[in-house]
Amino acid sequence: MVSYDQAQELLSDLAKKLSLQNKETIPLAQACGRILAEDLFANSPRPEADISAMDGYAFCCADITITDKHTGTIPLQDYIVAGDQPLPLWKGTAATILTGARLPAGADCVIARERTQLKDDLLSLNLVDIAPGKNIRRLGEEFIAGTHLLNAGQKLDWRHLVLLASQKVQELSVYKPLTVGIIANGAEFSHSAQDCRTELNTLLLGSMLENLGIQTINSVVRSDSKHDLKKAILDMVEQSDILLTTGGISVGKTDHVLPVLKSLGANGLFRRVKIRPGKPFTVMQLGTKPVFCLPGNTGAAAICTQFFIIPFLLSVLTRKTQSTTSDTLSGISNFSLMPPTDTTCFVPVTLLQKGNDRVLSLVPSQGASDILCFSQSAGILRIPEGHPLNAGDWCHARPF
Q1: Are 284 and 266 in contact (CB under 8 A)?
Q2: DSSP 8-state symbol, 248
Q3: What's the confidence (pLDDT) of residue 216?
Q4: pLDDT of residue 326
């Protein structure tokens, strides 16, 4: 049996050693939610030229005719819109220019339309509004060609797609999605069982993982047969990169998952973890494929997935070590809890605003099989072994 921290270290080392992902090239429009497989750099500067920052008039400050100490005039000649390649300004004239349009050669200032008066193609303006460089976005002002834009391992969303579109990227290399096989087992799930139970964990685990962009395949072995379980595992090995099993890992006569895996040549990374709930949680390797063996109790399976499996999968997907804590739900505990000296405990909590304080409150739970507590809570608080939680302590919970 290993501690919580030891389990995390072993999983981190395993994630670094795995090479699960093949690459594929896809259209940019299909890349949202995918994991970038290469570093990307700017093909061109942004802006690609000096452009106008607003609708107004472009001119050379030196060409303004001063009419009195406050105002000046300049005749209006051209009209420039975004997409034009404007000719140089006629000497001593201004041009109407729209936002984003290229600045014509010879212009060094843009003045907002509402700051001027126009009569008979003669533009009148206030001298205080005139300054070289005003309201102009310069070439490369945001970034220059060759700028490092995105790292390999980045999960892409709208922010990244629009950035790449600005660089005229049409296709890019991404990792193929991981496929995780999920196997639940137990005779209680047989439709012919006298006390037939609804199988919950494949839905639970599949929903959690698909939210990360991971493909899942589910299988339910509705018996306590070693033969049926072995066949399901072998079938799943062929279809998936990583396996999750749920149930059948304790020491009962019908707990066959670990013996069947060993008979197939699987090696153990660790057997059981000093946590509550979730103590039976075990990780093995079948060939090169990790096998996460989760407890059958739904609450314990959910917590093990949140604190061990999801950080592991994110590390594999992004090639970055994932933190197993989160500061998103931070507040003052209004309850105390004394964990066993050698056991890390997990409890569901809510977060409430009370005056100027953010308060974390315990959500009642009867045990590892509870599920209502998750719907009533905002996240899970981890209480490390040997660190009692006292009312008034500032603490951090992992949000759902």
Answers
A1: yes
A2: -
A3: 96
A4: 44
Domains of the chain, first to last: 4-20+178-318 (3.40.980.10), 24-42+150-175 (3.90.105.10), 51-137 (2.170.190.11), 329-399 (2.40.340.10)
**Tens digits of residue pLDDT in 2-15:** 999 999 999 999 99
Side chain identity, residue 323: S
Tokens standing for 258?
A: 């670990």
pLDDT in the model for residue 138:
97
d(CA 6, CA 4): 6
Secondary structure (DSSP) of 172-223: EEEEPPPEEEEEEE-GGGSTT-TT-----HHHHHHHHHHTTT-EEEEEEE-S
- Alpha-carbon span 133 to 14, nearest angstrom: 56
Both structure tokens of 169? 């990227």
What residues contact 356, with CB distance under 8 A and at least 6 apart? none
Task: Give CA–CA dist 321/241, Å, rounded.
Answer: 19
- Residue 312: per-residue pLDDT: 94
Element (H, E) at 98: none
> pLDDT at position 87, please?
95
Please give the structure tokens belonging to residue 387.
């660190």
pLDDT less than 50: residues of the chain = 324-326
What would the two tokens of residue 48 be? 């690609």
| φ and ψ at residue 14, rounded to 5 degrees | -65, -45
Model confidence, pTM: 0.78
Q: How many residues does the chain have?
A: 400
Residues β-bridged to residue 267: 285
What is the Cβ-side half-sphere exposure of residue 3, based on CA atoms within 13 angstroms?
12
User: Cis (ω within 30 of 0) for the bond into 290?
Assistant: no
CA distance 235 to 259: 17
Q: Which pLDDT belongs to residue 321?
A: 54
Q: How far apart are the C-alpha atoms of 134 and 111, rounded to whole Å? A: 7
Torsion region of 153: left, alpha or beta (phi above 0 gives left; psi -120 to 50 gives alpha): left
Per residue in 272-289, pLDDT (tens digit) is 999 999 999 999 999 999
pLDDT reported for residue 38: 93
Cis before 277 (ω within 30)? yes
